[in-house]
## 1
Amino acid sequence: MAHPKRQHSVQRRRKRQTHQKVDVPNLSVCSQCQKPIIPHRVCPFCGFYKDKPVVDMTVKEKKDKKEK
């Protein structure tokens, strides 16, 4: 493998790394509870997806109380 003859400067390294960053996720608003959620996912707060109940959130609360 080839090796560089001289070390790259900090400025050159930082110029190259400007595009290596984490993007902020796009959030939408839940139609039921109006909380920000990731699009195309079931709302973790109310359990609705596209105005339909998908997950029964009361069952999870009962399980959490039994474990404690």
Note: The chain has a mean pLDDT of 87.
## 2
Amino acid sequence: MKDTVTNKPEVYLFGQILGTHSFLLKDGFLKPDEYSEIGEKFFLPGGETGTAATVLSSLGISVRMDGTWIGTEVAPMLKDFYTDKSVDLSSLNFCADNPGVMDYVVISGLVRSPMGFFQTLFSSGKRWWNIPKEDDIRSSKVVAIDPFFGEESELAAKICIQYKIPYVTIDSRHDSFLHKHAAINVVSKECTSNGYQGMKPEEIMNLMQNEADGLTIITQGGREMLYARKGEAIKKMKPFNVEVKSTLGAGDTFKAGCVYALLKGMTDDETVRFASACSAVAISRFPLPLNPPTLDEVNQLIYQR
């Protein structure tokens, strides 16, 4: 880790940081009672915040990340991976009493299936993540907050508001504190399918618009994205067309693209286009942490369109 990063990173990320075991299958997705050949497998940083940190570093941004406690199996991999990257790990809690939070993802092109112990962890009643640090947020230019850590996620947002630091969040409901005060809220197809069943994307967007002044983006996988602010007409944009190798990390990369765009003062149209291009580059290769999008690759894809 570079000394300049540990002093004043441009971006503070708070949320899920995991060790991800990923398996790319050779001949289609798993079928009951049938053998599947593994083409490639890796153990690399993952989670919404871990992936975003990797992508932002590749785009040339200095990052400090915080959130999930890092256990004994995850820590060596994480420290080694970020040694030569502009990602500061000094705010993380490295604990010695558990192996750490990990997930396991089976992938085949557009289809993937994540597995883990998150329901068990969240239902334990114990906190296994940090409390966001005021000094880290105050010294940042832009913040990204995962919504999964309840009071701590909301505290991060409140500190941002106190110091007038804009933040990006993901999958935060229209009636949540995080959504109402976010500069950008990226809402995934998974979130709308589970939380707004039976509603059309335009209806969901209307709910989102009415509750916040920030930019809401609703992504729909390979279908058109919707985006708008309060009082505006809903705009739509098609995703970039690329050959998909793995969709793992696509949404986290989109979030990272929004953070970059916010940091650079892009317009709403530019933000959605840039984030979509980041995500498109990401899904065209595997594994993403070893091949994150570069700024040149993203700009080239935008130019080609």
Note: The mean pLDDT is 95.
## 3
Amino acid sequence: MLNERAGISVDLARRLERAGVSTARFWLSLQTNYELAEAGPAPKVERLQVESPA
């Protein structure tokens, strides 16, 4: 976690919350933001065209 070798799991986030170190939601949000930043920009995706039933 501190050396970027392990991420924040749900279990760890809950344990940190029980220890009084912010909320589990906070820790999971940090992990999600980190993973999104590491992934880079989102790929371009074309919108699906859904045909209406006749």
Note: Helices lie at 10-18, 24-39.
